[in-house]
Structure formats: C-alpha cells, structure tokens
Amino acid sequence: MTAVYHLSTGTRPLLISMPHCGTAIPEDLRDGYVPRALATEDTDWHMPLLYAFAKTLGASVIVPHYARYVIDLNRPPDDTPMYPGASNTELCPTRFFTGEPLYREGHAPDRDAQMARLTRYWRPYHDALAGELRRLRRLHDHVLLWDAHSIRSEIPWLFEGRLPDLNVGTANGQAADARIAAAVMDSCQAAPNFSHVLNGRFKGGYITRHYGQPTQGVHAVQLEMCQSLYMREQAPFDYLPEHANRIIPTLESMVRAACSTLETLP
C-alpha cells in the first residue's frame, strides 16, 4: 500500500501539519464516487509550496497522501460536528463544499466502511503526528503545532459572504498560549493588504483542539487562508507565483513570530 503520509523531521520545536493537501483516492474506492469527485476540488492545494520555508526554519512537516474525500484527518474519530449549528463535513465526507453528493446513489460508506478507513488512513497519520510531538517535547520545553489549511474564499454552503484572507484559530484560546496568538496577529496587522481574524468562522478543527495542550507544553494554531491569495480557485487550481510571492513573507512572519514567542515562555 502507498504510504499514508510523509513525515520529515526537524530540530526546532515546530511541527507543521497539512492534513488536507492529499489528492489520491485508492483504486478500490474510486467507483463509488461521482466522476466529479476524482478531481478532489476541495483539496487544500499547494500547501507544501507555500510552506517551503519550513525546511529553513528547521521544522518537522507531516503531509498526507490521500484526499480528504477518503477520510478527513481534521475530524474527530467519533465524527462529532466541529461547528454545531453550521454546515459541517464529516469524518468520511459525503458532500462537496457546494453541498452536492460526493458518492453515487447507494455508495456512501456505511459505518463499517468508515471504521475501516479510520484504521487504514486516519490512525497512522495521527499516530505519526502524536509521536513527533512527543519526540519534540522531549527536546524542548514548549512545542508549536501549526495546522496549515486553505479554502476557497466564498463557499455559501459553509459560510456567508467572503472569508477574511487569514483565519487564525486557537480554539477560542484553549489550544495555545495567548501570547502566541497575539504575536501571530501582530504579524497579520503588519501586513495591511491582507484581512485577518482570530477565532472567527474557523477556530481550529480536531487537530488544533485535540493536540493543543498549553499546560502540557504543546501549543496549536490553525491557519485557514483564502486560496485567492496564491492560486486560481477554479479548476485546474493553478498555483500563481506572482500572487503567492506576496503572501509567503507574511505567512513566514506569522510562523516565525509564533516560534519566537514560544521560546520565551517559562
């Protein structure tokens, strides 16, 4: 079987997770989807390119191989909705972000199939993520988990209107020390061309909420950024270097600010 994830290890107290950048759908599952799904349009496209600076920072990076349409690595294993009262995608999504069905009629995974996917795809990623956090925690008093995401700027099925460019989430302050969040937002403030918000529509998914344990020395921050900042939001979802090069310095500044603040914590 193709590896479920790729983990590169670093020396700094920083792990960058990109749980929605995978695009593969296993051959034995492909027939169940509607043809449109095979293009995986709801991918967090080009994340490794945007975060290429991670190597320079000495960060660890974990990325999945398989698409979120197989299983959503940023949802809890019991499939509890992340945002009660709003439209939510499930552990094994059944709809596009536009609301239409992902599967041909009668082919959505039942509970047994979902549990099989949980075992085969979800758990290996989380075992590796948790293991790397433990390794880094043995080396450092505090560790930062940066959960990297992107999304189309307008998706009426999920939210009203247009998102701010940079959506920072710390689970309403529960997942990271407030000084880290403040440092990240100061970096956003220093880039007035990009709108930003802290704990707005996206407060952090399962990864941020589960692993962010500041009292245990692990601080988690999710960044959900608009894809319009760096790519074409419609197929074929091209990376646009002239756009990306404008946002990458701010992105790197946000991560560096979080890391610098982390290293000052008692």
Concise overview:
The protein is α/β, with parallel strands linked by helices and about 270 residues long. It has one domain (about 5-260): 3-Layer(aba) Sandwich (Aminopeptidase), CATH 3.40.630. It has helices at about 25-30, 45-50, 55, 110-140, 180-190, 205-210, 240-260; strands at about 5-10, 15, 60-65, 145-150, 165-170, 195-200, 220-225.
Set out the fold topology.
Elements: E1 5-8, E2 14-17, H1 27-30, H2 47-50, H3 54-57, E3 60-64, H4 111-139, E4 143-151, E5 166-169, H5 178-189, E6 196-198, H6 206-211, E7 218-226, H7 241-262
Parallel strand pairs: 2-3, 2-4, 4-7, 5-6
Antiparallel strand pairs: 1-3, 5-7
3D architecture notes:
The chain has 266 residues and is α/β, with parallel strands linked by helices. The protein has helices at 27-30, 47-50, 54-57, 111-139, 178-189, 206-211, 241-262; strands spanning 5-8, 14-17, 60-64, 143-151, 166-169, 196-198, 218-226. The chain has one domain: Aminopeptidase (3-Layer(aba) Sandwich). Strand 5 (166-169), helix 5 (178-189) and strand 6 form a beta-alpha-beta unit.
